[in-house]
Amino acid sequence: MKLHTHMRDGIPDGTFRQPEHLQLFRRRLSDFFAKHNNKEERFSLYLGYLTHMLTDEKFILEIHPYVLQRIAVTGYDRDNPQTYVKFGRDVDQIDFRLVKEFPGIDKAYQALCQVTPYEIADYITEQELTASREWIKNYFFETEHTIEDPIFLPYQEMYQFIPEAVSQICDRLPEYITSDV
Q: Whole-prediction pTM value?
């Protein structure tokens, strides 16, 4: 399901960098936003979804390969499920720390708490999004975690990734947003 909700149907993990797959993903983003950017009442919703997808693209292209290389040193490869357990553990540890330290993160939590339920048409239902949002609130914001240092994905790299992603996304948004909005 996640491949579908992240516009990656037919783009298996490990093949995203292939030019034809990256082009397909970007065409899907463009088609998606062209379809939805004229819906003024939900413009910020679709803009947020587009921003999420652009962030994922940057992460998959720039961070993901290096983390897999670092994990491979331990003998794990892309085909071993434990590779993704290790990867996920590091991402969680970084997220736990960001939830405690990142400036303005409390506004994100407040926004999650105030959201009127919605769907992303053709991608994810209102019920699925509501369940996901509740899980994020509970898992990342409301549950106490012992924060440990990530092993393969340094915290500082991800902390630096955030403003870089913001800048890159701001530069790329004109590709998707028409002047009709």
A: 0.87
